[in-house]
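Table S4 entry, L-threonine 3-dehydrogenase.
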Amino acid sequence: MKKILVTGSRGQIGSELVRKLRETYGASNIIATDIRKMDDDHKEGPFEVVDVTDSDRLFTVAKEHNVDTIMHLAALLSATAEAMPKVAWDLNMGGLINALEVARELDLQFFTPSSIGAFGPSTPKDNTPQDTLQRPTTMYGVNKVAGELLCDYYYSRYGVDTRGVRYPGLISHVTPPGGGTTDYAVEIYYEAVKNKAYTSYIGEGTSMDMMYMPDALNAIIQLMEADPGKLEHRNAFNISAIAAAPEDFGKAIQKYIPEFKLSYEVDPIRQTIAESWPNSIDSSAAAKEWGFKVEYDLDKMTKEMLDRLTEKNK
Ligand code: VAH
């Protein structure tokens, strides 16, 4: 039976991944960890306070719980990383190599997400290939490319079973993201339900890849359970579900809330980051090597997001 330690369990991905993994593998087999614990955190199973920059603590918790897998999510996102690049390097890279070292020493399977942020302005923008130029111009992107190379190194040098995906912007109604460039695509749904209006900090016509959280979580489980003999790539796979710009979200919402109004007040910093990323990426390698597929398109995601957030607002 799999026994998994998750870092960053209180984050946008971690908070839902822990629930999904507990449903899939049993609550007691999923060790949720984060730098701080709040009362209502993941009470249905083990929770440990772990700062991923403390390698001894991470090793001790992994060993004591006798895990066989680490899913490392603790990291700063793009906009926050751009605001404090040195802090981002220390956490994103220091935390990653600590987690990889624990995986090497305890012979654990290892997952960590990369991002479409691993691409830069010189990367082909449309239908971005799996293998292509990666010269990102953000600290977050530098962290993601270095992270992909480091995870592949731990696979080729030490035989650690490292696997990863390049996530697009992730959209969910459970835990709002913090400090991301794509956060607007979450905020727009919250504001649509609350105020029937949203002012986007990303400009009209700026297309980015996006994905609904259930598809993002299924992708992790599918990849980690895939036959290693079929994997030609490891870190990290392009995956996406939706390529959309703010006006596409606006139109999708107006199908259910006709009076919804979208306006723009562009944030130059996050707009510059967004423009350095692809318009759409090619997910065919993930489909071929481990059967990646998605259930949610923009309309199905929009309907579910609005329904769930309306229920929450009651
Ligand atoms: C961010 N949500 O905006 C993250 C993600 C592709 C975007 O990496 O930083």
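The first strand starts at residue 4 and ends at 7.
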